[in-house]
Amino acid sequence: MPDISQARVRVGAVDVWAVRESGVADHVRAAWGRSEGGAIVTANVDIVRAATRRPDLAALIAESEVVVADGMPVVWAGRLAGVPVPERVTGSSLVFTLAEAAARDGRSVYLLGGAPGVPEKAAEALRARYPGLAVAGTDSPPFGFDASAEATAEAVAKVREAEPDLVLVGLGFPKQERLIRLLRAELPRTWFLGCGAGIPMAAGEFRRAPGVVQKVGGEWLHRLALEPRRLAKRYLRDDLPFAFRLLGGALRARFRGAATATATATATATADGVGNPTAADGNPAATGSAGSTTAADGVGTRTGE
């Protein structure tokens, strides 16, 4: 995959793309045209928290070509750090956007994850919504399959034999990303989306929050109301405090950056009498380098690479 000029921002231990959902679809379609595959991680607060605590999970995420902000606190942290992350891009929404792109380009889709019958129901819903969409296959691996090398190999073999162009993997983080790592070795021209609950959502098993609730960052409350026993501990004890620390860190990083820039400009003005840093040849010197990352308090800016 060639380097892509794309603005990014460091949020916690994760480099997030400042991109719209339509931009992700454009990127995938262009890669299909070059016979190149890749992977997409939709980083919500829970994923960023896990990656910030565990370097191995941060490294797992970094293997993916595209990492998007799936959570308004992640979007806000990027903006506070000085990078205009345009919108939240969720895995459940990308399921539809990428399926539509696949239908337009004559590409096939494979759905992996969900309770028995759910991926098949989701496939039917996507075919009804996007006529002509080719579904290469579906699979609902049994709970705990990833603990068995034999069961994991069986799941990988099914996908490999189907040879899809797009695989929607809804197993939850980091299980889905670990399986995607194995699948990519078998199908280097395929794109993979770790979509969490995106498959049962596409199947109509439960609905997302209203649009206005999503925009103000309240969808987590909607999910909490739907699944309080499963999500209360994670959302209220773990994710909510981390989100506040993330936003506070973004503000501190931005103010420190502004203070550093002011101090540098003042020192330069004293040195050369102009106020612009200069190189030995008299030309303005670069104040940063492409691909550099500032990650004070885990939040900083990153330029296109």
Please, could you describe this protein's structure?
This protein has 305 residues and is an alpha/beta fold. It contains 12 helices and 9 strands. It has helices at residues 21-33, 45-53, 55-62, 72-80, 91-105, 118-129, 149-162, 175-186, 198-202, 211-215, 219-226, 228-272; strands spanning 8-11, 14-17, 38-43, 66-69, 108-112, 134-139, 166-169, 191-194, 299-302. A 6-stranded parallel β-sheet has the order 4-3-8-7-5-6, with helices on both faces. Strands 2-1-9 form a 3-stranded antiparallel β-sheet. A hairpin with a 2-residue loop joins strand 1 and strand 2. Mean pLDDT is 82; it is low at 260-297.
Report strand order across the widest sheet: 4-3-8-7-5-6
- Estimate the global geometry from the Cα principal axes: globular
The largest pleated sheet is described as: 6 strands, parallel
Computed structural class = alpha/beta
Spell out the helices and strands N to C.
EEHEHHEHHEHEHEHEHHHHE
**How large is the radius of gyration?**
21 Å
**Approximately how much helix is present in the residues?**
40-55%
Mean pLDDT: 82
pLDDT < 50 stretches: 260-297
Separation of the first and last Cα atoms: 12 Å
Give a topology summary.
Elements (H helix, E strand, L loop, with lengths): L7 E4 L2 E4 L3 H13 L4 E6 L1 H9 L1 H8 L3 E4 L2 H9 L10 H15 L2 E5 L5 H12 L4 E6 L9 H14 L3 E4 L5 H12 L4 E4 L3 H5 L8 H5 L3 H8 L1 H45 L26 E4 L3
Parallel strand pairs: 3-4, 3-8, 5-6, 5-7, 7-8
Antiparallel strand pairs: 1-2, 1-9
